[in-house]
Structures are given as C-alpha cells and as structure tokens.
C-alpha cells in the first residue's frame, strides 16, 4: 500500500482488480478545499487511458511488477518463448500479450518482459530493430529518393512502407512502435 503522495510515473497500481500504470500525475492545492492528486492512468493489459482524481493522502494499492531483461528464443505454436539471462528460466508468452511487437521480433533479441504474479503482462521491444527486406518489387527508372513509397516484406513477415529505391536483401532500421522505415543500415 502507498499513499497518493508516493505516486511516481511508471508506478503500477492495482485498482478494482485491474493493473494501471501512472503515466502522469499532478498534486493540486486549490485555495479553498482539500488538496488532491490528478492522475492519468493507462491500463496495463488493454492500453486504455483514463484520468482519475484522488484526494491527497488516500491509500492506493500498488502492484509488484517485475521488469526483467529476457532473450527471445523461438515461437512454440501460438506462444513466444523467452529466457531470463540470469536464471535461465524460460517463460511462454501468448501472442496476444506480445501484440504487434511480434512483427519485429527476431530470435536472440533482448527485450523487457513485465511479469506480475508469474503472469506476463507485456513485452517491451527495443525502439528500433534492424531487419532485412525479404521481398519488395523493383523500383522503376525515374524513381527518386524523395516522393513515393512501396510495400516491402521483412524477414519477420511484417509489411511496411519503404522508399522506392529500397531493394530486396537490404538491411533497414525500423521503428518497432509504429512500423516506420527509419533508414538503411550499412
């Protein structure tokens, strides 16, 4: 248990049986009346964002979320298998928990897995990944470095939009948050 005075960004609260991450908080002391804390909370599982106000000094239940650095090993059916580098424990994480990150996940990638009561909550990938273009249509004469884009399939199977001059077999830097092309890797 903690009070609203102990709130910090990134802290995970257990409210009504659901886990919420504090993304923003502000202590407010109006001229009249009691002080209060205005927070922006993000649901850990669904990603829903809500604003919630607490009276100052109110007790809130904190959740113990263990964030561990793990290595992605392989896909087992619909599950992804990750290994803790310190203990060599392997955990299975469902595809729903991994989410869109699965599109950019290569074997032996270091990720952060958040676990609560031995249940994986979410997987944090590195912000950028270097991936090879598996297939893209060739650019045509007259294509320039500025202007249009074309679809390209990456080695993980993900489809992203790339500039017209990109060819099959090139290594690209991709933003894992939104699948944006960031540039070529030499």
Automatic annotation (TrEMBL):
Enumerate the spans annotated as Elongation factor P C-terminal domain.
129-184
What function is annotated for this protein? Involved in peptide bond synthesis. Stimulates efficient translation and peptide-bond synthesis on native or reconstituted 70S ribosomes in vitro. Probably functions indirectly by altering the affinity of the ribosome for aminoacyl-tRNA, thus increasing their reactivity as acceptors for peptidyl transferase.
InterPro entries for this protein: Elong-fact-P_C, NA-bd_OB-fold, Rib_uL2_dom2, Transl_elong_fac_P/YeiP, Transl_elong_KOW-like, Transl_elong_P/YeiP_cen, Transl_elong_P/YeiP_CS, Transl_elongation_fac_P
The record, for PROSITE patterns, names:
EFP
For this chain's UniProt record, which GO biological process terms are given? peptide biosynthetic process
* Keyword field contains Nucleus: no
Which PANTHER family does the entry mention?
ELONGATION FACTOR P, ELONGATION FACTOR P (EF-P) FAMILY PROTEIN
Full protein name: Elongation factor P
Family note: Belongs to the elongation factor P family.
Mostly located where?
A: cytoplasm
Q: Which GO terms describe its molecular function?
A: translation elongation factor activity
Q: Where is the Translation elongation factor P/YeiP central domain?
A: 67-121
Which compartments does it reside in? Answer: Cytoplasm
Encoded by which gene? efp
**Pathway, according to UniProt?**
Protein biosynthesis; polypeptide chain elongation
One Gene Ontology CC term in the entry = cytosol
Q: Which Gene3D superfamilies does this one have? A: 2.30.30.30, Nucleic acid-binding proteins
Organism superkingdom = Bacteria
Enumerate the UniProt keywords alphabetically.
Cytoplasm, Elongation factor, Protein biosynthesis
